[in-house]
Amino acid sequence: MRFKSVLLVLALAAGVGAFSASVRADTLPSGQRTMGQATLEPAYNDLNGNILYLLTPDHAKMHTNPRAWAPLYVVMYPTSAAGSVGTMNCAHQPADNCPDHGPLLSFLAANVWMPSVYGAGVWGHDHLVTGVPPVGGDFNIAWEPIAVLFTSNAAANTHITTEAQLDAAVAAGDAIEIPLPSATFLCAVVPAVIYNMATPVTPVP
Is the dihedral of CA 3, 9, 11, 13 positive or negative? Predict the structure, then answer.
C-alpha cells in the first residue's frame, strides 16, 4: 500500500474515530506497527494522560524553524521500575518492540546518560506529546524528542503520563531532560483504528 493510500484510510477513519482515548491499564497498547510507508506507535496526551497514536512517514526527519517544533517527551524507565509502571508505549525487555529507536535510547541511558540508574537494564519508555486537538496545547507536526531520565531508582517507580507530573519530577530533581534537536521528525496524531489495522513490527533482542 502506498503512503497516499494510508492517508486516504486516515481521512476515512477520522470521521468515525476519536483522536485520543482512555484505556484500561491491562489493555495498554505497546510497540510499533507499520502500514504502507509509515510507522505507528502509541503515546500519551500529556495534558490528560489519555492514550493516542502517532503516525510517522518513512524518512520523516525535518529541517524546520525550531519555533515551529513541539516537544515529544521520551520518558525512560529502568528495569527496577517494571513492577510499578507496567506496560510501556515501547518495551525494551524481553525484546525491543520499537526497534527503530528503542535500542539506541536504551544504550545511551545505560551507558552514557545515567548508568547509575539504567546500567542494570532499561524496561521501556513512554512518549508524552504536548496538547492535541480537541484538548488544545501547542500541537505541531514537527516534534523534537526530549529524553527524560530519572535520577534514582526510587523516583522511577512513579509512572509519568502528564506534563504536570513531569514538571513536578524535574522541579524536585527526580528527573532530567535531554533535548535531541537533531532527531526532530514529522508525525501526525491518528485514530486508534489505524493503529489496530496496522501490522506489528518484529521485536529485536
Answer: negative
Omega of the bond leading into 191 within 30 degrees of 0 (cis): no
Classify residue 93 by burial, with Cβ atoms within 10 Å: 0-12, 13-18, 19+: middle
Nearest to 19 by CA among 132, 161, 187: 132
d(CA 42, CA 56): 11
For the stretch 28-53, pLDDT in tens is 999 999 999 999 999 999 999 999 99
- pTM for this entry: 0.84
DSSP state of 202: P
* Closest-CA residue to 92 (of 118, 129, 128): 118
Q: Which residue has the cell 529502568?
A: 78
Q: What is the DSSP letter of 201?
A: P
DSSP 96: B
CA neighbor of 43 nearest in space, from 136, 131, 151? 131
Task: Mark 164-197 as b/e (b = at least 16 C-beta within 10 Å).
Answer: ebbeebeeeebbeebeeeebbbbbbbbbbbbbee
Q: Assess contact for 123 and 169: CB atoms under 8 A.
A: no
pLDDT at 18: 37
